[in-house]
Amino acid sequence: MSASETALPTSSSVFVSHKALVYFLSTFVVSWLGAFLLVAPKLLHHQSVPKFTGLLMFPVMLLGPSTSGIFLTWYFDGRTGLRNLLARLAPSRIAPRGLLALLIPPVLILAVLFALKTFVSPAFTPNHFFFGAGFGLVAGFFEELGWTGFALPKMLAASKSWLPPAMVLGVIWGCWHIPVIDYLGTATPHGRAWFPFFLAFTAAMTAIRVLIAWTYVQTQSVSLAQLLHAASTASLVVFSPGAATPTQEAFWYFVYAAALWLLIFILGITGRFGPTTLTSVQTQTE
Asked: Concatenated DSSP letters for 7-41?
């Protein structure tokens, strides 16, 4: 990263650099255009998109964050940037204590679902689709090459605090899922519950993004970010209750999001996050 990027800004309100904006534009264009081209034959013939075709949009969309992250790293930072990215992907960057963060998504999801099953409805009984864990591994590996490998460091370099950039990145990340949002979860299509589900999903993903950013600031490890992303996605795929209606699915996502934000609040007030103010060292990617 250049010296101009590692220097801290004079205002913490500026935390989206032009390089991050270029990344967002590139990622959305590649991902959304790829998803549209996949379903265009159905849409042009006024046919509904089958669920399987809808699910196929997701691996196509993974090209956006991954290729944009790698290409823009080379374009802006050259070979030095690519070597730096590889260094941050090294498993040696992962602190053993950091692996405990991987337990957060499955533990909270199971706690929420068991509570809802007990006190609200048996429809919230957790599923056990363990083969779905593979979806999490693929999503985590490819997406974080861009979200954490490129976008987050550029945003951190333009901010005095890591928390606001993490929250903004989380909202953008949630919106990036819009083309496939109706094919996520088990109660698809969501019908009238589409917008509530989208809001609940984005709230949960923004919280996950804050946790990913927290681990990255502490370790500078893209690999740990990939693993935490994988744990989040895999847990949702594996444990999402198959009997829930679209409205119930939106509801339990809201409860899960609330649990994540409560955890973040507790970590914050107990000092587990450490200082949210960044030093010039923490804004570097080396």
From this structure: SPPS-TT----HHHHHHHHHHHHHHHHHHHHHHHH
